[in-house]
Amino acid sequence: MNFASTIQVSTKAIIINKARSFLTMLGIIIGVFAIILLVSIGSGIQNYINKQFENLGTTSIFILPGTGGVSSGPPIGNVSKFDREIIDRLKREEGRSFDQVVASQDTFAVARFGDKSKNITLTAISTNGFDVSSLDIVKGRKFTEAEDRAAKKIAVLGPTLANEFFPDINPLGKKITIGSTRYTIIGVTDKLGSVAGQDPDNTAYIPINTYLTQTGTDTISSLLVSAKSQESVEQTKQKINDILLTKLDKDDFTIQSQEQLLSSILSIISFITYALGGIAAISLLVGGIGISNIMLVSVTERTREIGLRKALGATPADILTQFLLEAMILSLIGGSAGVALGFLGSIGLSQFLSTSVPLWSVILAFGFSAGVGIIFGSVPAWRAAKLNPIDALRYE
After folding, report:
1. Which helix (H) or strand (E) holds 329?
2. Which residues contact 307 (CB under 8 A, 6 or more apart)?
3. 335, 366 contact by CB (below 8 A)
4. CA Rg, the chain, in Å?
5. 3-class secondary structure, 75
6. What pLDDT score was predicted for residue 72?
7. Which label site among 99, 176, 180, 353 has the fewest CB atoms less than 10 Å from its CB?
8. At 118, is the secondary structure helix, strand, or coil?
9. Greatest CA separation found in the chain?
10. What pLDDT, on a 0 to 100 scale, did the predictor assign at position 185?
11. Which residue has the higher pLDDT, 44 or 106?
12. Distance CA 132, CA 100 (A)
């Protein structure tokens, strides 16, 4: 029997048992769907983070509390000791040793306007933080250095927050209550987009000195320094280290370039993505076991058919090929359906978080599903090929 005829026979056997074939493919469909969807989420998050770091520029240097940094997990002794004096010492070198110093602090707060209230992210930031972070203002303006130094009670809103409280009116000049303090709205930022279920546009930005004055604290969580050029990043890191050591111990801070921090974050996300994909692949193995079981049942049910085909001249290789093809066809159809559902799921999730389906994940899913068909279909196929034609014809 030629290969084309074998494919035709295998396909006909699958079509005859539609319900059984569908249930056999279901495990493969679910496994491939889960792999595609989880990888698309992880890949989308990586692309989003890459984009955000690109906005910061290649000369950005991050100063984090404690030692270890992102690559070693949570920093040791991560209580921040970055106070106004540290900020002032760094700012005195602004324009000489490096370009800009940005102080920032993120906290959660409740914002209220009229009878509406909303949980938000409150970001206290230096004025130049808008430029360094590429936070574009689409309405109004950002706060000035003078307003920051004077600790003015003013705020710039993200578009999600602005649209929630002021859907039909201009928010500029209106007053919003954040925590227990009323702030005058002076601007609205452009849309950044959501990632991993988090909405960075649900944010209110206030001057860093306003935050320090209102909270009665003297410390902030992180600092960002912009070097004069990419070539001077290492030299700038050493200068920052020397400045910080005039007041802090070496265990009180970690200095990382953008490349180091980005690499650390992406390696963590990649590990999580691959781990989740591996967990999802377990369902493919379950699907493979289902294929093996169904094919064994099929061999038993079609014993007389196998005996008849052998009596008419079919070789063991023909029988082996037929049953292997049936298993592979079931796996590939299931894999195709899983990929299609994964794409649809990725498109649906893109409305809420960043997703991206890389080509390698599709190739991997197809290859894995084909491999499952071959591996788990080989035992039933081998059993069918070894049947004695006389015994098979006598089988009831």
Report:
1. helix 316-349
2. 387, 388, 389, 390, 391, 392, 393, 394, 395
3. yes
4. 31
5. coil
6. 42
7. 180
8. strand
9. 99
10. 95
11. 106
12. 8
